[in-house]
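quick one: 5'-deoxyadenosine bound model?
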Amino acid sequence: MNAATIIDYLNMSDPSDLFAKAKQIKAETVGNKVYLRGLIEYSNRCAKDCYYCGIRVSNTNVCRYDVDDQSVLDAAEYAWRKGFGSIVLQSGERKSREFTLRIETLLNQIMTLTNHEIGITLSLGEQDEDTYKRWQDAGAKRYLLRIETSNRTLYEKLHPKNHDYDARLKCLETLKNLNYQVGTGVMIGLPFQTLEHLAEDLQFFQTMDVDMVGMGPYIEHVDTPLYSIKNHVSTPLDVQLRWLSEVEATKLKKQNRLDLTLKMIALLRIQMPTINIAATTALQTLDPFGREKAIEIGANIIMPNLTPLKYRENYFLYDGKTVVKDTFDDTIADLEVRLAQIGAEIGYNQHGDSLHFKSKP
Ligand code: 5AD
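yep, here:
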C-alpha cells in the first residue's frame, strides 16, 4: 500500500469497509485463535530517559524494583501449567554483564522448570550481539524491541541526544540475523506525529519484514517532559480539540487515538496477513473493550499481566495503566468470556509462533 492510500484510510471517518476487509483477511490467515503471552514486568530500572515514558531514569518518583528470581520462576510455572504457551520477560533498558548473566541463568531455570515447553519472548531493550546470542542459547525464541517511531526526526524529538535511532535499528538487524522471531512497534498519537509518520511506520514494518508487531496509543504520563505539551495538536483529527473544554478534549483525544490505533492494526493485518499482532495493554486503558476491538479487526495476541502484584503498580509507563487486582485465574476466566463474545478462542498449549516467521526459508 502506498503512503497516500494509507493516509486516506487513516483519515476516513467511517472505517467499516476497512475493518470488514481486515476481518476477512484475518479469518483466512491466522484465524480466530488468540495466543497468550504471560507478561512478567521483570524490572522498572531503566538507563534510558525517553521523554514519554513513566519509568525514565530521571523520574525520581518511581520506586525501583527487580522481581526476585523465585517470583519470576513461579510466574513462568503458572503460565506453563495453565497452558499459556509463552511468556514475555520485559524490563527497563539496562546493559551490564551482571544483568546479562542474571537473565541467562533465569532463562535456563525457566526452561528446566517447564520441561523446555514454554516459549520465551524477551523485551529487554538494546543489547550487544553477544548478549542476544547468550539469551537465545539459553532458550529465548523471540525478541520485542519497539522502534517507537520509525521517523528519524520524530524519534530525535522524543528522545535525548544520546539515544541513537541507528543503534536501535542495528539491534533489530542483529536480532533478525540471529534468527530470533523479531517484533517491533510504535506508539500512536504522539505529539508532533502526523498521519504521514504513521504511514511510514506501516511501511517500515513491511521493509523490515518483521514477524510480530505491538503498537498502541501514546498516553501521557504526568512525570514526563512530554506532559507539558499534552494539548499539542498533530493529526487533522485533533484539530477540533482546540475548541473544546478540557474535559471534552481529553475524551475526544482518547477516542481519536483509539480509532487511529484500530485503523493502524486493520491496515497492518491487510498488509502483513501472517504476522502476529498484539492487542496491547494501552488499548485497554483507553477503552475497557479496546483489546477485544483490536482482536476483532486484526490482532491475535494478548499479553495477560503475570507480574507479582506487589511490584505491579511500580511499572507505570503511562497514566491510568490498568493494574488488575484480580487473581490470575479470574483474569483468564474473564478473558475467555470476553473473547467468546467476539467469536475468538484462546489457543492453549501452543506457542502460537508467527506464521510469517515459519514460512521464511
Ligand atoms: N504511552 C504509551 N506507551 C508507552 N510506552 C512507554 N511510555 C509510553 C506512554 N507514555 C511503551 C513504549 C515501550 C513499551 C514498553 O511501552 O513503546 O516500548
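The CA atoms of residues 205 and 325 lie 35 Å apart.
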